[in-house]
């Protein structure tokens, strides 16, 4: 084979490899978006994962239907994620809302439920309060279970409509807010990010200051650098084991937000130390010398001159860290648990978005839901990526001149 | 005089404080090592489970007090090796394309894509594997399920791409221009220059990337857990066999294990830890060798 032919063959292989890399990326992101996008909506982001039973107190009224039958039918009465329409909808005047019967699929069990499919603008349901007098929202696709103590258990849709119509005055309605949302996971993730940064950021920044500004080359500095490198190389499951042994068991923090965030803080240390060090190194020596020549102490120089110049670098470190926390799963699985709830205290468990994605994929086999959570995660990752690009560009100003 | 002295003392104290902060990294590494090893070696020291049975056993049945991890070690090694075999060539060639063949704009775009790939959490790779790779493997597999060594290898191969690409690309870009010019001057073509001059010159950097890739593959948990099958026994003999790597063994059972069972999960961690330490030392040595030359 001639040289040119051989060269173009090799070139072709290189193009092929690059093509594979790119198509893998596209297919992963594409897969997650295509599979999950149908589930991502406002309710998905703002609802809890678990169903919530609410007792609502409503003053009954007489609200006529303001739209025609056809458009009432076309109102999607059910949450498309889990349900199929069986009967209805029927409009009930005294609560100003339409109800429909759906077969509601909850994980593995399937049962018929009465849901609210449409709510009039001036429906009394919009003024619903709970037993403490706090206003609550009742939305379409909430499940109706009983009214004034009459359980809808085995009733048909017509019977339920009649029962509701027969009631008047103050109605006590038992409704179930459907689950399947990720509000608690989003909030847990935020808590986790904040807590771990509060711990890791000062440690990492001060550590980096020591390494760049004070330390003289020697055994101590080598040990610290070697340790940081080791930390960066340890897989997260080992951090999880350590967190389990130390924070959960030895410190008796239980599987909780605090155990999880402290474990993650250790994972973040090398990330923060490294990027802060890089940032401090870009600050020209002349700045320090100028400051010292003006009579400033070393400490003043660091805090008034060096650190302000390194702020974009530290911002990059923060963004990278947030990405790390959002992406972390194995360590958190062992230390913060898989309970989809908003942690009430530092010592209660909660699952972050990533852990939740794992949980629904593995334990419930619900790939669509995992992909929907994946979309939220990928959007966060992309935003962080772009932001960190901007901040790290800002850092290069000293060297560009 | 007094004021200067006080100032000096303050400076020393704060320097000490900074040192302590920096030292937290060292303390963490020590604490992690001590805690994991302490818990992991307990069952062998207290003789509640023989270490030989642990290391050579091929069945993990906590119910009947059988804890062998040999088949997991084999599974871990097979999966990592397979992933390297597939992922590394693709990654190095992609790195070559980015730094040598692509224009600066196209190169930048691909680099951004690779960085994005690196930022995707491992769970999502697992979900992708479960949703796409596992069903495809099932189609060609003689077994009844798609979760297999092959699926694990493919997912891991994808996962090590960004690591190996970005490190190889950096070290290829770092090869001095003169090397290439010298090669061209001798009449070599671009492709010959890349493979005979540039890649050998960037060898140690690429090796570092590969070893970090190995580290990532062997330590990966969540993605693998979704696609590997996690059988309770059996050394894998074909690509379609299920495997249970060391990492997933820990993550699967840690939540509810207790007593010897839990301690032996820590022991699994110790074995994994030793693998990782060997890899870390190799990286360290390579990086030092590079600085030396």
TrEMBL record, chain A:
<feature type="transmembrane region" description="Helical">
    <location>
        <begin position="255"/>
        <end position="273"/>
    </location>
</feature>
<feature type="transmembrane region" description="Helical">
    <location>
        <begin position="190"/>
        <end position="211"/>
    </location>
</feature>
<dbReference type="GO" id="GO:0035435">
    <property type="term" value="P:phosphate ion transmembrane transport"/>
</dbReference>
<feature type="transmembrane region" description="Helical">
    <location>
        <begin position="223"/>
        <end position="248"/>
    </location>
</feature>
<feature type="transmembrane region" description="Helical">
    <location>
        <begin position="367"/>
        <end position="387"/>
    </location>
</feature>
<dbReference type="InterPro" id="IPR005672">
    <property type="entry name" value="Phosphate_PstA"/>
</dbReference>
<keyword id="KW-1133">Transmembrane helix</keyword>
<feature type="domain" description="ABC transmembrane type-1">
    <location>
        <begin position="186"/>
        <end position="388"/>
    </location>
</feature>
<keyword id="KW-0812">Transmembrane</keyword>
<comment type="similarity">
    <text>Belongs to the binding-protein-dependent transport system permease family. CysTW subfamily.</text>
</comment>
<feature type="transmembrane region" description="Helical">
    <location>
        <begin position="302"/>
        <end position="322"/>
    </location>
</feature>
<dbReference type="InterPro" id="IPR000515">
    <property type="entry name" value="MetI-like"/>
</dbReference>
<dbReference type="GO" id="GO:0005315">
    <property type="term" value="F:phosphate transmembrane transporter activity"/>
</dbReference>
<protein>
    <recommendedName>
        <fullName>Phosphate transport system permease protein PstA</fullName>
    </recommendedName>
</protein>
<dbReference type="InterPro" id="IPR035906">
    <property type="entry name" value="MetI-like_sf"/>
</dbReference>
<dbReference type="GO" id="GO:0005886">
    <property type="term" value="C:plasma membrane"/>
</dbReference>
<keyword id="KW-1003">Cell membrane</keyword>
<dbReference type="Pfam" id="PF00528">
    <property type="entry name" value="BPD_transp_1"/>
</dbReference>
<dbReference type="InterPro" id="IPR036034">
    <property type="entry name" value="PDZ_sf"/>
</dbReference>
<keyword id="KW-0472">Membrane</keyword>
<keyword id="KW-0813">Transport</keyword>
<feature type="transmembrane region" description="Helical">
    <location>
        <begin position="12"/>
        <end position="34"/>
    </location>
</feature>
From TrEMBL, chain B:
<dbReference type="InterPro" id="IPR035906">
    <property type="entry name" value="MetI-like_sf"/>
</dbReference>
<feature type="transmembrane region" description="Helical">
    <location>
        <begin position="149"/>
        <end position="172"/>
    </location>
</feature>
<feature type="transmembrane region" description="Helical">
    <location>
        <begin position="264"/>
        <end position="283"/>
    </location>
</feature>
<dbReference type="GO" id="GO:0035435">
    <property type="term" value="P:phosphate ion transmembrane transport"/>
</dbReference>
<feature type="transmembrane region" description="Helical">
    <location>
        <begin position="12"/>
        <end position="38"/>
    </location>
</feature>
<keyword id="KW-1133">Transmembrane helix</keyword>
<protein>
    <submittedName>
        <fullName>Phosphate transport system permease protein PstC</fullName>
    </submittedName>
</protein>
<feature type="domain" description="ABC transmembrane type-1">
    <location>
        <begin position="73"/>
        <end position="283"/>
    </location>
</feature>
<dbReference type="InterPro" id="IPR005672">
    <property type="entry name" value="Phosphate_PstA"/>
</dbReference>
<feature type="transmembrane region" description="Helical">
    <location>
        <begin position="193"/>
        <end position="215"/>
    </location>
</feature>
<keyword id="KW-0592">Phosphate transport</keyword>
<comment type="similarity">
    <text>Belongs to the binding-protein-dependent transport system permease family. CysTW subfamily.</text>
</comment>
<dbReference type="InterPro" id="IPR051124">
    <property type="entry name" value="Phosphate_Transport_Permease"/>
</dbReference>
<dbReference type="Pfam" id="PF00528">
    <property type="entry name" value="BPD_transp_1"/>
</dbReference>
<feature type="transmembrane region" description="Helical">
    <location>
        <begin position="69"/>
        <end position="98"/>
    </location>
</feature>
<keyword id="KW-0812">Transmembrane</keyword>
<dbReference type="InterPro" id="IPR011864">
    <property type="entry name" value="Phosphate_PstC"/>
</dbReference>
<feature type="transmembrane region" description="Helical">
    <location>
        <begin position="110"/>
        <end position="137"/>
    </location>
</feature>
<keyword id="KW-1003">Cell membrane</keyword>
<dbReference type="InterPro" id="IPR000515">
    <property type="entry name" value="MetI-like"/>
</dbReference>
<dbReference type="GO" id="GO:0005315">
    <property type="term" value="F:phosphate transmembrane transporter activity"/>
</dbReference>
<dbReference type="GO" id="GO:0005886">
    <property type="term" value="C:plasma membrane"/>
</dbReference>
């Amino acid at each position: 084979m001639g040289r040119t032919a051989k060269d173009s063959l090799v070139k072709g292989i290189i193009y092929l490899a690059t093509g594979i890399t790119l198509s893998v990326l596209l297919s992963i992101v594409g897969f997650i978006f295509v599979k999950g996008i149908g589930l991502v909506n406002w309710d998905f982001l703002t609802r809890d994962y678990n169903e919530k039973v609410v007792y609502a107190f409503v003053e009954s009224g007489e609200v006529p239907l303001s739209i025609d039958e056809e458009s009432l039918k076309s109102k999607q009465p059910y949450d498309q994620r889990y349900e199929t329409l069986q009967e209805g909808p029927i409009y009930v005047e005294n609560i100003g809302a339409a109800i429909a019967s759906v077969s509601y699929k909850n994980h593995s069990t399937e049962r018929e439920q009465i849901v609210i499919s449409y709510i009039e603008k001036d429906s009394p349901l919009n003024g619903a309060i709970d037993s403490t007098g706090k206003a609550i929202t009742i939305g379409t696709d909430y499940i109706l279970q009983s009214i004034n103590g009459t359980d809808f258990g085995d009733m048909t849709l017509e019977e339920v409509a009649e029962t509701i119509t027969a009631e008047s005055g103050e109605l006590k309605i038992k409704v179930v807010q459907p689950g399947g949302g990720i509000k608690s996971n989003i909030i847990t993730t935020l808590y986790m990010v904040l807590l771990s940064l509060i711990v890791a950021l000062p440690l990492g920044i001060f550590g980096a200051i020591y390494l760049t500004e004070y330390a003289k080359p020697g055994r101590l500095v080598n040990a610290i650098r070697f340790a940081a490198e080791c930390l960066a190389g340890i897989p997260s499951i080992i951090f999880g084991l350590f967190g389990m042994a130390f924070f959960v068991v030895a410190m008796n923090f239980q599987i909780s937000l605090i155990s999880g965030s402290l474990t993650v803080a250790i994972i973040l240390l090398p990330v923060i130390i490294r990027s802060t060090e890089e940032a401090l190194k870009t600050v020209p020596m002349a700045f320090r010398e100028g400051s010292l020549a003006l009579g400033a102490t070393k400490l003043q120089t660091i805090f008034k001159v060096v650190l302000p110049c390194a702020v974009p670098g530290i911002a990059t470190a923060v963004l990278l860290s947030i990405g790390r926390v959002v992406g972390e799963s194995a360590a958190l699985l062992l230390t913060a648990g898989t309970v989809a709830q908003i942690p009430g205290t530092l010592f209660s468990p909660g699952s972050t978005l990533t852990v939740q994605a794992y949980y629904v994929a593995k334990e419930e086999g619900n790939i669509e839901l995992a992909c929907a959570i994946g979309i939220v995660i990928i959007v966060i990752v992309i935003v962080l990526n772009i932001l960190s690009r901007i901040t790290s560009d800002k850092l290069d100003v000293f060297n560009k001149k | 005089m007094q004021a200067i002295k006080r100032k000096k003392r303050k400076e020393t104290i704060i320097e000490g404080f900074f040192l302590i902060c920096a030292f937290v990294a060292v303390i963490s590494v020590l604490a992690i090592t001590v805690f994991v090893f302490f818990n992991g070696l307990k069952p062998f020291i207290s003789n509640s489970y023989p270490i030989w049975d642990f290391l050579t056993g091929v069945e993990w049945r906590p119910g009947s007090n059988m804890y062998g991890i040999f088949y997991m070690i084999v599974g871990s090694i097979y999966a990592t090796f397979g992933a390297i075999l597939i992922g590394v060539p693709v990654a190095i060639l992609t790195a070559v394309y980015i730094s040598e063949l692509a224009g600066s704009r196209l190169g930048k775009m691909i680099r951004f894509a690779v960085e994005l790939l690196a930022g995707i959490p491992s769970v999502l790779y697992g979900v992708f594997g479960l949703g796409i790779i596992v069903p495809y493997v099932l189609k060609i597999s003689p077994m009844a399920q798609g979760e297999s060594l092959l699926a694990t290898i493919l997912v891991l191969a994808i996962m090590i791409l960004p690591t190996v690409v970005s490190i190889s690309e950096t070290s290829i870009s770092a090869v001095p221009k003169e090397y290439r010019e010298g090669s061209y001057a001798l009449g070599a073509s671009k492709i010959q220059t890349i493979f005979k001059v540039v890649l050998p010159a960037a060898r140690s950097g690429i090796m570092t990337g590969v070893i970090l890739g190995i580290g990532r593959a062997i330590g990966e948990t969540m993605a693998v857990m979704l696609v590997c099958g996690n059988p309770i026994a059996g050394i894998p003999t074909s690509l379609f066999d299920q495997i249970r790597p060391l990492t997933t063994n820990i993550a699967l059972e840690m939540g509810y294990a207790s007593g010897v069972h839990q301690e032996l999960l820590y022991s699994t961690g110790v074995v994994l830890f030793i693998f990782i330490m060997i890899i870390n030392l190799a990286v360290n040595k390579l990086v030092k060798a590079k600085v030396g030359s």
